[in-house]
Amino acid sequence: MTLLAVERIKLFSTRSPYWCTALALVLGVGLTAIIAGTTEKGQMSIGLTQFGSSQLALAVVLVMSALAVTTEYRFNTIRATFLAVPSRTSALVAKTVVVAFIAAALGEIIAFGSWGLAKVMSPTSDLAINTGAEWRHVAGVGLLYGIGAVLAIAVGILVRQTAGAVAILLVWTMLLEGLIGIIPKVGIKIQAWLPFQNANHFLALGGGNTAEQPGAGIDFKLSQWGSLAYFAGIAVALLVVALVVAKRRDA
Amino acid sequence: MIQAVRLRKHYGRTKAVDDLSFIVKPGRVTGFLGPNGAGKSTTMRMILGLDTPTGGDVTIDGKHYTELKQPLRKVGALLDAKWVHPNRSARSHLKWMAVSNKIPVSRVDEVLEIVGLSEVAHKRAGGFSLGMAQRLGIAGALLGDPEVLLFDEPVNGLDPEGILWIRQFMHRLADEGRTVFVSSHLLSEMAQTAQDLIVIGKGQLIAQTTTEQFISDATQDHVRVRSPHAGKLREILAASATVTEDAVDGALVVHGIPAPQIGEIAAENQIVLHELSPQRGSLEEAFMQLTKESVEYHAH
């Protein structure tokens, strides 16, 4: 508990988490506002409300999470941290828990904020959340952010530089996983096992409008909750590798 | 007490620290002296568990730093004043450190008061001058009221007032019975600060002794003599001493006979003296003499 309090103090006594939170909110909810404003009257759907949260704002949250650790390396406060808490694993796990928790909470705020705004802007559309799939599609965004934060922190610990970590995370999520689908025949088979594709699969609404959803056309071998577990498994595995490396490396 | 036993740190073929053994005693200021690149900072990082030694061992009262439960209560360290997030206030910086070692937060204001930063406690540390940053670093080291204190080049870049403050401060800490270990590449600074010295060069121990002993060993006394009858005087003195000539003004430089005796010898032989002055070798010269074998980069 002590270490969680320490990481909370550290995170909220700098500016970048505030800026990233604000940016994620503006981008996530803002994109939904634009979509809701330009969609024809009554045609807004639950699926359309979450493009901003599950794609655009997610990238900002990943950057924020990576920054929480790379700035420690940048300003050498990681050394001050390891002096105060010589158990590096405990210190870094505490940081991961705090950042993942904040990311998850932010995810829920952005997801329901986007949904609420769409409902206000497009009152005639059917935006009631009544099926399990619809609940998962909206409320699941928080889970995605939390797990994404763990993965981003792991990358941050391994790379130790802001520029490197941010480049890796953005190229990975926004380009690499999508581009692999272009490879003939095997592309979509590989995609079925890529972490962020599985994250999208978890959110997928199913039903008639699947073509609009990210991750469409991929033949996933896992159930939707299985995909989430797979995504979480990869994030945790990467974190374990990062913790082992951090423990062995000279600070 | 800090004890290093055959401590080694190798980076590939470079031996940053090589077979280094020493003891730092409580109640005294111990200087850790060596030219730049001698391995002082690497040794300090190994003491604090930041770097893992390639071989050997270093302990604080018999324990590794990483085994300490609340290390800040036992050991305070200032390795680099810039290890602070520039956007974090001085107070927040100390607050998270205090919380991490279950030190009451009231102690934060106390140490800010001690180092004279109370007025800027809520200012962001990025805007601090080097002297202020150094004070903040010292406040961090004092936070847990530790028995053992480590300072790496604490006076680097400070103005004379700051240097004096730190020097007096370290003496006060040692007088309170604490172990104070402070590194520097300047012997003249250490001569005024440290009671004991551990001198290293190229990662190896050169000397571990009291500062007084080290200085008297390192700096040889000699006497400068100028006389219109220098040739005659030189002949007489050469019988019982080493006499050389100053390359600049031709004065005689006498090793082995104290000044009063030279005066008496001159009087007996009716030799006029224009100068008779006892000289003490400069500390820096002596230090360079001792470490010149082990300086990593030479200027030619």
Secondary structure topology:
The complex is a heterodimer of chains A (251) and B (300).
Chain A: H1 2-12, H2 16-38, H3 46-49, H4 51-74, H5 77-84, H6 88-121, H7 132-159, H8 162-179, H9 186-191, H10 195-203, H11 224-248
Chain B: E1 2-11, E2 14-24, E3 29-33, H1 40-47, E4 55-60, E5 75-78, H2 90-100, H3 106-114, H4 130-142, E6 148-152, H5 160-175, E7 179-184, H6 187-193, E8 196-201, E9 204-210, H7 211-218, E10 221-226, H8 230-238, E11 242-245, E12 252-255, H9 259-268, E13 275-280, H10 283-291
Parallel strand pairs in B: 3-7, 3-8, 5-6, 6-7
Antiparallel strand pairs in B: 1-2, 1-4, 8-9, 10-12, 10-13, 11-12
* Class from secondary-structure proportions of chain B: alpha/beta
**Total number of distinct structural domains of chain A:** 1
Low-confidence stretches of chain A: none
Largest sheet of chain B: 6 strands, mixed
Helix content of chain A: over 70%
Give the H and E element order of chain A. HHHHHHHHHHH
Could you state the oligomeric state of the chains shown? heterodimer
Counting DSSP H or I runs of 4 or more residues, the number of helices of chain A is 11
pLDDT averaged residue by residue of chain A: 92
The fraction of residues assigned to DSSP E strands of chain B is: 25-35%
Average pLDDT, all residues of chain B: 89
Over all CA atoms, what is the radius of gyration of chain A?
19 Å
Task: Indicate the CATH architecture of the largest domain in chain B.
Answer: 3-Layer(aba) Sandwich
Look at the structure and give the CATH class of the largest domain in chain B. Alpha Beta
The overall number of domains of chain B is 2
**Based on CA inertia axes, which overall geometry of chain B fits?**
elongated
Order of helices and strands of chain B: EEEHEEHHHEHEHEEHEHEEHEH
Summing up helix and strand content along with how strands pair, one would put the structural category of chain A as mainly alpha
